[in-house]
Amino acid sequence: MKVLVTGTTGMLGSAVIRDLKRFNLFYDVVESGPSSDRDLTDLDTAKDFVNTEKPDVIIHLAAVTSLNECKKNPDKANTLHADLTKILASSCKRMIYVSTDSVFDGVTSTPYSETSDTSPVNVYAKSKLIGEAAAINNNENSVVIRTNIFGCKPGMLADWAIQSYKDNEKIDGYVNVKFNPVYVGDLAVAIRKTIDHEVTGIINVAGDTCLSKYHFLKLLYKRFNMDTEMIRPKTYNDHGQELKRPKYTCLQTGLFEKEFDHIFSLDQGLDKLFEEYKEE
After folding, report:
1. N-to-C CA span, the chain
2. What is the Cα Rg of the chain in Å?
3. Strands (E), the chain
4. Phi and psi (nearest 5°) for 2?
5. Cα(100)–Cα(212) distance, integer angstroms
6. What global pTM score does this model have?
7. Beta partners for 202?
8. How do residues 10-33 score in pLDDT, each as one tens digit?
């Protein structure tokens, strides 16, 4: 089975490639490569690429993850998240599109299910939501994964916190912004499991703990044997800010647990992150 993966230079893409290559007897993995080698926002290039490779499965991970970049360049965000998704979904037997928990406005305090009403508050989330529809409408065998990940990529929350500690800098953790993140390596496993599974449509993949960013950072520092007093509690307020972010994005994971008989533990994810840093 030929599996094409986009966004392979990113944190999630790298994890997915590592995981799939452990099963190279089953999967012939094709990487899209860095954008400097192949610009998938050039839709003609993208069409030629998939027509040449003729993959059975496409895992679409390429994304503009910076909210500020999406706001500055919405056309690029829509091209990569939506227009490209339509082309990819139309070019394979099985489409796996990774979306975001940010398709919700976060005004509730109840975890969102796969059927909850969406209401994105920024360009990034709006373009990802359009991409969800593009995947589902152009391939009846599509899977859309809503999620929020943590890992060791520079610039991501966990790595920023760890580097700040190494630099002896105190950081702020929002007490009123809640999520249930999953370790990037665990999400890579979940993505692989969906390749041969019959599940279609939207499915949430998240950790087993809904908690504030402040609490997450405290657990992170505790696991890394760092002084948790270096984290200051802070309340997030987007009043007057141009860039909006949802304050609550916890996801229900019952469907994934039912279909795959698996729960992703936040504590175990933090253990895996710790081991990953030790190997660097």
Report:
1. 32
2. 18
3. 2-5, 28-31, 57-60, 94-98, 142-146, 149-150, 171-174, 178-179, 182-183, 201-204, 211-212, 231-234
4. -90, 125
5. 17
6. 0.96
7. 144
8. 999 999 999 999 998 789 999 988
